[in-house]
Amino acid sequence: MFAEVIVDVLNSETDKVFDYKIPNNLKIEEGTRVLVSFGNRKIEGYVIKIKQNSNVKEEKLKEIICNIDDFVAILPEMLKLKDYMVKRYNLRVADVLRLFIPSEMRSGKVKPIFKTYCKLNKSYNLDEFANSLKKNATKQMSFILFLKENNVADITFLNKEFGSQTVKKFIELGIIKTFKEEIDRRPQIIERNQEKFEHTLEQKRAIENVKLNENNTYLLHGVTGSGKTEVYMTLIEKVLESGKTAIMLVPEISLTPQIMFNFKNRFGENVALLHSGLSAGERYDEWRRLRCGKAKVAVGARSAIFAPLENVGIIIIDEEHDSSYSSESNPRYKTVEVADFRAKYNDCPLLLGSATPSISSYYNTEIGKYTLLELPTRANGKDMPKIQIVDMLSEIRNGNSGIFSNALKDELFRCVEEKKQAMLFLNRRGYTSFMMCRNCGYVAKCTDCDVSLVYHKDEEKLKCHYCGKRFKALTLCPECGSAEIKQGAIGTQRVVSELKEMFPNVKILRMDNDTTKNKNSHQKILEEFSSSHPSILVGTQMIAKGHDFPDVILVGIIDADQSLYQSDYRSPERAFALITQVSGRAGRKDLEGKVILQTYNPKHYVYKFASNYNYKAFYEKEINLRQTTKFPPFTTIVRILISSDKEEIARDTIRSVYNDLADVYNNYKEDFYYFNAMKSPVGKIKNKIRYQILMRFTKSKEDVIMEKIYGVVDKYKCSKTSIFVEIDPQSLS
Ligand code: ADP
Ligand code: ZN
Ligand code: ZN
User: Fold this and answer.
1) Cβ(626) – ligand 1 distance below 6 Å
2) How many domains does the chain fold into?
3) Binding site membership of 227 for ligand 1 (Cβ less than 6 Å)
């Protein structure tokens, strides 16, 4: 028998399959990881196929050296998924396979750990031995008493309790025997008691409408606090009862502690947690608990979609609109598409949930691709918190040019006086920033694309990320002539220091990339926040989602415009989602909540609809805009990114690719709305020069056009340049 093996080497431009002979003494299956000799090295590889014959001459074939694991690492389903992903995203097989197993498993970095236990030898006559002991042998006596009550114990514990000499003697006498058992390194979860409640009618209806043994995609549109988690957990409960398994995805680690409390309470040991915040050992063990069937529910961020579960009964993607579900570095993939593949393979439902579904997903419910489920009211029966829009331009005109509007200050003082909690939200996304006039609210936009221009400080230029147009950075506002035009972004640190001056005796916490570098730091900050009264939490996107604190009565959105004017056709959608999510943190229990939204453009339609929680009106407005301007979901945006150490090579390659693609463009001219090559907005990263081809074409032609694009791109894959294709990328910088 022969095996087709993919060797696990990084940076090899080709993704070749090599044939190896399977020695008779090895038990090799498709999906087994093996050690093989490659050149004059020994490296790890994956068996992707087993066959009777090989086209390679017998004497040229080497034998597989050995298995790496004592189980099949890659399940048959995942081998099929690999084929799908390689084709759909034009990826290397090795890169895809690497997604399927924890990186710790490769090159044996992490190994299972074992613990030694002692077990009482039942046939030994303990009483007789006890009688033979001297009166002063108290240690041994108490050890005997202990053994009478406990048959098995951890040796470290026994050594500490009764002295290692005693334990050693007992082992020598044959009173106890030692044995080893593998122990799981488990992420630490703080357990909390949860109250029991009756499902609301809306929850009942949503749960009943999900057909469990059929493949359908559902979109659960439920306002914040409507009890979506309860719907997820009930469905998973049913799935487990029928002997199947479940995958539950959440966007960020900061959210998982919360979800984990709930899931732990409900499903106990059945839950395994998969995310990047775990230690290597923990991740490895959690993965193996799933693989061997000890755990049946995988909960985690994006990569948990690759959980090694068989017989999957439901896949749930919470906060489905979140951009973290799209992988933006190699290997690039879209979680929802992978989930769809697995749901189809297992013939089970895929459930997407959100308070603010992505425009594309909601559109899918309109065209009948998804089934819509709705939870229009909060589970506690309370109204959504009131959102007050504050015009920051008029604050300036009235002499307040600080970070906080007077309305926000008043509410903060009230909140502190009542010993309650407040969350202040700031939007900071990377290094990009727009230019805005502080006098009239003018924002620089691209003349062709109607998206905000991005200010690139290094070159003093404003750039459009969709068409590549460049403009001089402004020094005077073209609308009102004011010199108060600048790139406005306030940092969390400044907000915190101003708050500390206002409230010297109040607990003020900060949660952003800087304060959450360490393991468990999210959890610590959140625990501290929730246990202090009064307290104020200042943070970025991280505090927007999922948290459920009963005593938060005030939410302040310091700079709402930051999310509105990102250079992306999805900015309105994202701004709407963010405002809704952040606002949803207020008034979740018995107390009424209030939201203050600060903006320089109070009349913008996003604010109007968001402040009324009118998702449908927002959706209607947005989908019409997309249709008119030919943006997704009506079109597909593709970027081909080429980078190289050498400017010349990058430029030559992009030119050739562009010329080759011109044929495709000409054949499908009516379907193309944009097609151009240019230097990337961020022209250089880590000393690599970056060029790109951008195109936009009719969605319905996606499959045929993508195939042609990949055909061209494959010709240019070589070691000197890297070339990637992205479908509907989240960012074009
Ligand atoms: P969502 O995810 O939709 O924002 P959650 O699932 O976090 O909402 O639920 C919000 C709050 O409502 C939680 O505290 C939850 O325990 C509570 N809850 C959920 N379902 C019910 C119910 N049927 N009755 C009472 N409270 C509920
Ligand atoms: Zn102006
Ligand atoms: Zn443009």
Assistant:
1) no
2) 5
3) yes
